[in-house]
Specification:
alpha/beta; five-stranded parallel β-sheet; 12 helices; 18 strands; 22% strand; globular
Length: 433
Amino acid sequence: MRTKTLKKNKINIVTLGCSKNTYDSEILMGQLQANGKNVAHEEDDGNIVVINTCGFIDNAKQESIDTILNFVDKKQQGEVDKVFVTGCLSERYKPDLEKEIPDVDQYFGTRELPKLLKALRADYKKELVGERLMTTPQHYAYMKISEGCDRPCSFCAIPLMRGGHKSTPIEDLVTEAQKLAAKGVRELILIAQDLTYYGLDIYKKRALADLLKELVKVEGIEWIRLHYLFPAGFPEDVLDVIREEPKVCNYIDIPLQHISDPVLKSMRRGTTMAKTNRILDLMREKVPGMAIRTTLITGYPGETEEDFQTLKQWVQDMRFERLGCFTYSHEENTHAYNLEDDVPEEVKQARAEEIMAVQQIISEELNAEKVGQTFRVLIDRKEGNFFVGRTEFDSPDVDNEVLIDADYLKAGDFYNVKIESATDYDLYGVVVD
C-alpha cells in the first residue's frame, strides 16, 4: 500500500488540440505559478495532472479519451494522486464523462478557470492580465483576442464548447503584448475562432484593423500573424493595414472549407463561390505576394462527385500558398448532424488525398520560384545538421520551413537567407549579409 509522503505537490498540465488550448493552458499555468504552485507542462513527474482536452472531431475526441484513461490508470497504479479534466471535451460531454470515467477527480468546462483553480487550491487573480507561462519557444507566442463564436456553420461544434463570441478589449491585448515582448517574444500569432468578428460586441464594429494599429506600436514585436479569418463579412480595412504595416505579416489564414455553392449553402457559411473568389482576388490585389492559407473539408453530407470536382478544379486554379484538407466528421448536436452522413469514409479520405496531391504540386512549383531570392527568416530551432526557420509566409508547425546549413545561428533572431534549393514543403538556403 502506498504511504503518504511529505513531497510538495507538482501540477502537470497536459495540452491537447489547437493553439487556443495551448493559450488556455499557459494562462492556467501563469495563475498557478502566481499562487506559488509548482507547475510544469507535459512532464512525467507531476503527482497532480490537469488534462486540457479537445472535442472538435472524432480523432481529437479519441485522443483526449485515451489520454484521460492513461492517467486514470496511472492514478490507480499509484503513480499520480489526482486527475482533473478541463477543455472542450469536458465542456461538451461532462455528464457522459462523469458516468463513463468516474475515477477522474473532477471535470471542468472551458469557462470554469476559477473553479478549476479552486480545486487546485489556488485563487483566480484578476490582476494577472496577460500573465502566463509560455509553452512555445520564447520568441513566438499565441495571443487569443476573443473567445467563442457566433457563426452558424452547420458542421461545427465550437459554439457548443466555447460559447458565444466575446472580444478582449484592445488595451488588455496591448498590455499582454508588452509583457510578452519583455520576455523576448518577437512574433505574435493572433488567434480566435473568428478574428474578423473582433470588436463587434464591445465596439459595435469590426475592429481588427484598429487592434493591429495598436499592436504594431509595441516595441520588440517584429511580426504579427493572423490566424482564422472568416470569409463572410471580411473587414477589408485589414488588408490596408497588412500592406502598410511592415510588422504585420503578408499572411492570412482563411478557412474556406468548400467552394461548391450547394455545399456552402448547406454548410451555412453565408457566402458563395463568387463572393469567395472576390475576397481572394482583393487580397492578392491589395497585398501582392501575400501567402494565403486555407483549410478544406471533403465528404460533407450530400457532397457529390460534381461538387468535389468543382472543389478540385478551384484548388488548381487558385494556387493557394498553403492548404490543408480534412475529412468531414459527423458531430452530434450540430445542424449537419440532422443530415445523412452519406459519403463513405473511404471516399472522404480519397478525395482529401486527391486535394493534397494537387496542392503538393502547387507548393513545389511555388517554392521553386523562390530559389535565388533572399528572405528574412526567423530561426526556431536546430534539427540535425540544420538550423530551422520560417519566412513571414509561414506559421509554426503547419507551414513550410527554411533549412539553413550554418555553424551557428541563434533561435529567435532574424537573418537574411538566400534560397538555394527547394522541395515541395521545404526551402534550403544560406545566410547572406
